[in-house]
Amino acid sequence: MSAITLPPTFPVVGLGAAAICFLQFFQMGVVGSARKAAKVPYPNLYVSDADAKADQNKYKFNCAQRAHGNTLENVPSVIALFGFLSVFHPIVATSAVVVWVFGRVFYTLQYAAGNPAKRNGGVAISHYLGILTLLFGSLYVAVTKSIEVFA
């Protein structure tokens, strides 16, 4: 049985973890502001299509809520890939997560502005670079380490 020795740069991973938490708090604030502007009472998660079509603030609330929901759907994969890759390449993993968070902030702002078609415009698309780096970095490590073990 072998032990995992963490690289000396491993503490940088805390920055990536904090960035993910920042993103969640940021999105909660965006949704909360949109909820207040649209006067949507708790516990309503969304407003109906008819209400959203009749009131731009309610439509923007739905957009903000969806941006947050989409991020929540992706966070488990991001954290899993980040955790795995960070054991072997903490700086690469942290950089990728920070890029993902940066992109998701702009994704959220653009989506919450009420034009979902533009949610991946401009720098918002960088969230794909972040998650693809985590995915392919993790695959690379898994394959190369598996070859070492089974060779």
TrEMBL record:
InterPro entries named in the record: MAPEG (IPR050997), MAPEG-like_dom_sf (IPR023352), Membr-assoc_MAPEG (IPR001129)
Entry-linked Pfam families: MAPEG (PF01124)
One cellular-component annotation, GO: nuclear envelope
SUPFAM superfamilies tied to this protein: MAPEG domain-like (SSF161084)
Predominant location: membrane
Stretches that traverse the bilayer: 12-31, 78-103, 123-143
Keywords recorded for this protein, A-Z: Membrane, Transmembrane, Transmembrane helix
Annotated membrane topology: Multi-pass membrane protein
GO molecular function, one term: glutathione peroxidase activity
Subcellular location: Membrane
Keyword Coiled coil applies: no
Protein name per its UniProtKB record: Microsomal glutathione S-transferase 3
